[in-house]
């Protein structure tokens, strides 16, 4: 337990981490938040009216707010945390690196953690990926992938500068920067910026619960991939690449792709000589039960974007990996200007890379992927009773990523109108019951840290079930 500290409760600056904050301090912070901060994806007019949950500290899978209330971290702090908060080994790795250098640059220099991490990433990612380009968030990892693919075709001999277009999926989410928004497919986030975006070919994603072809798996024989085939047949000469979130379209509401879909996309890309760009920013690092979702279908993309879980949820870091074929196209003498002119100030940050190396060590040392199997099947089992709920339309799971789609009418699969805020209300109810969740529209999302035990998973699902019941069944 905590040692008694000398600091009095009302004293500034921050109080002892183990003691609840005084009412006065709480009010001060809440006021200042509302005065100075602009929160992401947030209607600030409504934010201003709400009581805030201000997180002060966290340990394992629990977050603690300023009043001392504990919450299960049901979103892994927005899909980044893997081994829990204050994990000893990641803490120590960062502290150790901090004593050497916090940041240097990869422009004209190198550093030890980024060298070691690049080697590790090449070792653990699908076979064939052999080069690592670092950046600092998921959106940039994807931007880099797009620019690499685009330049790659121009550098071919003879040049294939006709290959300039990208194919992306409906419901896709690849980040919020202009390039990654261009290949996104969630209208609510993207439509507003339309005139700023480059044009892509959009094809429907496999959303089996609401199949646009009205078929069902497996008798459909993946008929939804026919669209891509037709498009490639017609337009492959102008297509640089296909961008996909393998296995799970996460931000779309955890829409899981049927088995074989990814492999089929890979085959088509190969057959028509276009690059496959896999965005595993959300699915990477064990989230779907394998280290990378591509590995489930033994697929190697031409370019792979990683971020979120890469540092175990500690620090911003991202990596874009590619094959020797693509890398080599950029080689030449200086004056040929084949160089990839792209880089960020914090590229290859040594603290981030050290955290990432510690993250990967934990996977090995704790045989995490092996232990994950039992958790995944436990989670499948405890989710079953939720199918009986009147307003649960669909439950989708890939490893420890879960989306529970709520519907107003189950038979007709009729969605709740967004203005009813059903997802938001369920998550507010869960927060009262001690768990942090964030919905995606009418989809309740559960993405627990990989270290969550079976009983903790059960507790989380129980809170979700009760919250769904409370909002959709009792308060009509
Ligand atoms: C979160 C996410 C991104 C964007 O990552 P940021 O770090 O938020 O920029 C890109 N792609 C996918 C699949 C994501 O889930």
Characterization of the model:
The protein has 476 residues and is an alpha/beta fold. The chain is built from 16 helices and 17 strands. The strands form four sheets. The protein has a seven-stranded mixed β-sheet with strand order 4-12-11-10-7-5-6, with helices on both faces. A four-stranded mixed β-sheet has the order 1-2-3-16. Strands 13, 14, 15 and 17 form a four-stranded antiparallel β-sheet that branches. Strand 8 and strand 9 form a beta hairpin. The structure holds pyridoxal-5'-phosphate. Pyridoxal-5'-phosphate binds next to helix 6.
Furnish the topology, listing elements before pairings.
Blueprint: H1 23-36, H2 44-47, E1 55-59, E2 62-65, E3 70-73, H3 76-79, H4 88-98, H5 112-124, E4 129-135, H6 138-154, E5 165-169, H7 178-182, H8 187-190, E6 201-203, H9 226-235, E7 239-244, E8 248-249, E9 255-256, H10 261-271, E10 275-279, H11 293-296, E11 303-306, E12 318-323, H12 324-329, H13 350-365, H14 368-383, E13 392-398, E14 401-409, E15 414-415, H15 422-432, E16 435-436, E17 443-446, H16 454-474
Parallel strand pairs: 3-16, 5-6, 5-7, 7-10, 10-11
Antiparallel strand pairs: 1-2, 2-3, 4-12, 8-9, 11-12, 13-14, 14-15, 14-17
Helix pairs in contact: 4-13, 5-13, 14-16, 15-16
The structure holds pyridoxal-5'-phosphate.
Shape: globular
* Strand arrangement across the biggest beta sheet: 4-12-11-10-7-5-6
Count of beta strands: 17
Summarize the amount of helix as a percent range: 25-40%
- How far apart, in Å, are the first and last alpha carbons? 45 Å
* Helix vs. strand class: alpha/beta
Describe the biggest sheet? 7 strands, mixed
Backbone CA Rg: 23 Å
Q: Which ligands appear in the coordinates?
A: pyridoxal-5'-phosphate
Q: Beta-sheet strand percentage?
A: 15-25%
Give the number of helices: 16
Mean pLDDT: 94
Which regions contain 5 or more consecutive residues with pLDDT less than 50? Answer: 1-15
């Amino acid at each position: 337990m905590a040692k008694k500290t000398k600091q009095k409760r009302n004293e500034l600056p921050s109080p002892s981490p183990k003691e609840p904050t005084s009412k006065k301090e709480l009010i001060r912070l809440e006021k200042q938040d509302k005065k100075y901060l602009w929160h992401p994806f947030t209607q600030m007019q409504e934010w201003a009216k709400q009581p805030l949950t201000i997180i002060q500290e966290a340990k394992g899978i629990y977050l603690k707010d300023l009043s001392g209330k504990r919450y299960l971290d049901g979103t892994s702090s927005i899909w980044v945390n893997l081994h829990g908060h204050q994990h000893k080994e990641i803490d120590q790795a960062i502290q150790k690196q901090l004593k050497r250098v916090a940041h240097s640059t990869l422009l004209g220099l190198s550093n030890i953690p980024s060298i070691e991490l690049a080697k590790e990433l090449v070792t653990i990612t699908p076979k064939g990926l052999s080069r690592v380009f670092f950046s600092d968030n998921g959106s940039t990892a994807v931007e880099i992938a797009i620019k690499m693919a685009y330049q790659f075709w121009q550098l071919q001999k003879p040049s294939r500068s006709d290959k300039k277009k990208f194919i992306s999926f409906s419901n896709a989410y690849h980040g919020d920067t202009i390039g990654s928004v261009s290949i996104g497919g969630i209208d609510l986030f993207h439509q507003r910026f339309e005139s700023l975006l480059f044009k892509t070919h959009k094809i429907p994603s496999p959303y089996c619960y609401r199949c646009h072809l009205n078929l069902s798996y497996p008798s459909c024989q993946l008929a939804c991939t026919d669209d891509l085939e037709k498009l490639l047949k017609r337009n492959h000469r102008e297509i640089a690449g296909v961008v996909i979130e393998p296995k799970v379209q996460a931000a779309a509401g955890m829409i899981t792709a049927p088995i074989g879909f990814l492999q089929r996309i890979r085959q088509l890309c190969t057959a028509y000589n276009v690059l496959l760009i896999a965005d595993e920013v959300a699915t990477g690092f064990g989230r779907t039960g394998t280290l990378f979702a591509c590995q489930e279908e033994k697929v190697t993309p031409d370019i792979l974007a990683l971020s979120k879980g890469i540092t175990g949820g500690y620090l911003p870091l991202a990596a874009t990996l590619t094959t020797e074929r693509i890398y080599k196209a950029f080689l030449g003498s200086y004056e040929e200007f084949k160089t990839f002119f792209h880089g960020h100030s914090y590229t290859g940050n040594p603290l981030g890379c050290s955290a990432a190396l510690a993250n990967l060590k934990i996977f090995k040392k704790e045989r995490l992927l092996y232990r994950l199997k039992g958790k995944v099947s436990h989670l499948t089992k405890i989710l079953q009773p939720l199918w009986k709920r009147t307003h649960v339309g669909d439950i989708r799971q890939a490893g420890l990523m879960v989306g529970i789609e709520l519907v107003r009418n189950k038979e007709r699969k009729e969605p709740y109108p967004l203005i009813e805020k059903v997802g938001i209300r369920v998550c507010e109810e869960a927060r009262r019951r001690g768990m942090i969740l964030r919905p995606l529209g009418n989809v309740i999302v559960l993405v627990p840290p990989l270290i969550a035990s079976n009983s903790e998973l059960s507790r989380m699902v129980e809170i979700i079930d009760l919250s769904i019941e409370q909002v959709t069944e009792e308060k009509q």
